[in-house]
Amino acid sequence: VLQHPTDNSYYLNNNIDGTSGYPGCIYTENYNSKDFTDKNTVLYGHNLKDKTMFSTLHNYEDKETFSKDQYIYIWTENDLFVYWVFAAYEYNSNHLILNYDYDNEYVYEQYLKDMRNVGAKGYGVALFKDDIEVTKEDRIITLSTCTSDHDSNQRYLVVGVLVEPDE
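and the corresponding structure tokens:
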């Protein structure tokens, strides 16, 4: 997972070696810390036709696939972060970090509640695991990519809650 120090869209169209063009990289913006300590860390990646990058996130649109216990693993130089997937849904293209103050407990708690109601708002595909409790004390990770039809007004998001690596 890469992060450019000043240009938040750099890795959208630049590769790890600095060359311009696809596929780009999986990256976070500098609104997120590099140590995954934010309430919501958002990772971005392309939805490519060759099934690389974040295109396979769309497998979560299948209810059977989504119903299985799935985890997101992030390895850093010093840590292993394990996130239990609890949501996969289409959402508008509002910037998830700039539009929500996750440091405000009320805003974060409301965001978590609102997330479970996006299906009722007509954004599209929305699957949630009601048996996984996520509270304002938890940290989440959001994987963001284009929708299947590449609608620029929507994103497809897969969200996991941080758990202990041995759970």
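(Above: one complete record from the training split.) The two ends are 24 Å apart (CA to CA).
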